[in-house]
Amino acid sequence: MVDDEGRRRSLTELAGLYGESSVPPVVLATLITAQHLRPPKFFPLLVPPVLLFSSYLNLLGDATDAAGLSSAWSGLYLVMARRRKQALLNKWSPRGVVRGATMGLCLVNLVCGGLVFGSGKMKGSNDDDD
């Protein structure tokens, strides 16, 4: 990908831009809700409100904390989703494809959000203290 100055962006820069975006947590919350609302499952449905709150934090300007929150809860959902076993024929049904897309998006959110949180500056912290 090329930026405005005509130079190519590195993979780390692209991951940082993805991790700072407020859209992926909303998409992930939508996929999780669509998957677990019928029949309602209590524990997986605890994740979407937190992801929506992290998107709200990002819109308020706190991108580093929002990326960390989104990364942590995406990782938690990924662990919960990996515990459920699925038969081979069910993996290629529409529900299985949505589950695979959800888990893939969780993994990308976990990596990119963790990268942003790990390398970002916290609000209110001063690095000038010597």
Structure description:
- It is built from five helices and no strands.
- It is globular.
- The protein has helices at residues 11-20, 23-36, 47-59, 63-83, 94-119.
- The protein is mainly alpha-helical.
- The chain starts with 10 loop residues before the first helix and ends in an 11-residue tail after the last helix.
- Helices cover 65% and strands 0% of the residues.
Summarize the structure.
This protein is mainly α.
N/C terminus separation = 39 Å
Structural class: mainly alpha
In oligomeric terms, what are we looking at? single chain
Helix content estimate:
55-70%
Order of helices and strands: HHHHH
Unreliably modeled segments: none
| Shape category | globular
Task: Provide the β-strand percentage band.
Answer: under 5%
Mean pLDDT: 87
- Largest pleated sheet: none
Q: Helix segment count?
A: 5
What's the β-strand tally?
0
Cα gyration radius (Å): 17 Å
SSE blueprint and pairings:
Elements: H1 11-20, H2 23-36, H3 47-59, H4 63-83, H5 94-119
Helix pairs in contact: 1-5, 2-3, 2-5, 3-4, 4-5
Which terms would index this structure?
65% helix; mainly alpha; single chain; 5 helices; globular; 130 residues
